[in-house]
Amino acid sequence: MDHFLYRNGALHAEDVAIAEIAAEVGTPFYCYSTATLERHYRLFEEALAGLDCLICYAVKANSNLAVLRTLARLGSGADVVSEGEFRRALAAGIPGERVIFSGVGKTRRELEFALQNNVRQVNVESEPELDLLNEVALALGVVAPFSMRVNPDVDAKTHEKISTGKAENKFGIAYEDAPRLFRKAAQMKGIRVVGVDMHIGSQLTDLEPYEQAYTLMRDLIERLEADGIPIPRIDLGGGLGVPYTRDNQPPPLPFDYGAMVRRVFAGMEDREFEIEPGRLIAANAGILVSEVVYVKENAGRRFLILDAAMNDLVRPALYDAWHDIDPVNEAPANAPTQPYDVVGPICESGDTFAKQRVMPNVSQGDLVVFRSAGAYGAVMASEYNTRPPAPEVIVSKDRFAIARPRLTYDDILGKDRIPDWLEDAEDASASTHTA
């Protein structure tokens, strides 16, 4: 469920008309709903009620400070994968004690920053990282809270580019190597073992892979504790899928997920649990709004050319991802439809959002929205073709605010620097031609 609904034929974000925002902000733009963010966060609270569970929102899904502050006010922690994301969490009011640092390539500088800012735990993903974490902690005179991300070699049955729990993926430490490295960590003077972590992929639509992975996790915990290594925290990772289209069978609800967690970890309820949802909190809390620039017919196909492009929303080009596309002005129930290739203006054939998508008739100047665009949308945007990325707006009831303004061309050009030896290049070229 989200809070982007039609009222009297006009799409609204909560109590604000989308057309009203477009008139002030221009298109394209992202729009986030506070009510939807809050509702989705609370679904996880309810699903895991009774467990000592910290919800650590996965910042990579949507790192806008307004989104992070909204969740911070609900008590959310953060799962981060870079120093930059850690800094965003802190800026949004999430203290280091509620930040989990994940990622396969943490640098010395990033580990120093994390320990200096009282990170809740570092999810280590390799033996060299464990060695470096111990070295950094000793140099700083602290003890690093260590959790190991274990790769269970479980197929999440999701897109290959968002699979993280198979043996051939770059993430985590092989399940068979974990006991040895836990024993090594337990002997290190700069390390305090606090937990074990698994994250097997994103956009999971079936609970079976979770249950396989969590059963392996439980077995590992029991083996470690039999060896005298207590594991007080169980990090469940994230990845629960969202319904990107109204027509498909919806993924499992957080309630079903919570019931599975309780079943697998029955008897371990005295532990601290952590969960790292990102997509399920943010995806359906956001839309991308765009204007139709042209409707073009070519070789029997009709192209809907928008002012949004793959630099704004790359998921369809990168993953062949589906987003429902709707007109801002609701079409009557019996309105005629036709297939469109929905494309952007970038000079790439890959700048295609949908092929032969059946939609109500739309015209030049109409507004359309991409649904479920709140996760891995603006956060993956670029300035390709020197296009200013879409700005971001957040709505709360009958108010809206610009949460990230649109860059100007001067903003973009001002980031480049011309070396001194090129400053007079134009004059030199001119004199050559004159000669």
Describe the structure.
The protein is α/β, with parallel strands linked by helices. The chain has two domains: 150 residues, Beta Barrel (Lyase, Ornithine Decarboxylase, Chain A, domain 1); 173 residues, TIM Barrel (Alpha-Beta Barrel), CATH 3.20.20. 29% of the residues lie in helices and 25% in strands. It has 13 helices and 21 strands. Strands 4, 14, 15, 16, 17, 18, 19, 20 and 21 form a nine-stranded mixed sheet that branches. It has an eight-stranded parallel barrel with strand order 5-6-7-8-9-11-12-13, surrounded by six helices. A three-stranded antiparallel sheet has the order 1-2-3. The protein is globular, with a radius of gyration of 24 Å. The chain starts with a strand and ends with a helix. About 1% of the residues have low confidence.
Descriptive keywords:
alpha/beta; 29% helix; 9-stranded mixed β-sheet; single chain; TIM Barrel; 13 helices; Lyase, Ornithine Decarboxylase, Chain A, domain 1; 435 residues; 8-stranded parallel beta barrel
Q: Brief description of this entry?
A:
The chain is of the alpha/beta class. It contains 13 helices and 21 strands. It folds into 2 domains: 4-14 and 20-28 and 284-413, Lyase, Ornithine Decarboxylase, Chain A, domain 1 (Beta Barrel); 103-275, Alanine racemase (TIM Barrel), CATH 3.20.20.
The N- to C-terminal Cα distance equals: 70 Å
Task: Note the total helix count.
Answer: 13
Please, what is the oligomeric state?
A: single chain
The percent of residues in helical segments reads 25-40%
What is the level 1 CATH name of the largest domain? Answer: Alpha Beta
Percentage of residues in strands: 25-35%
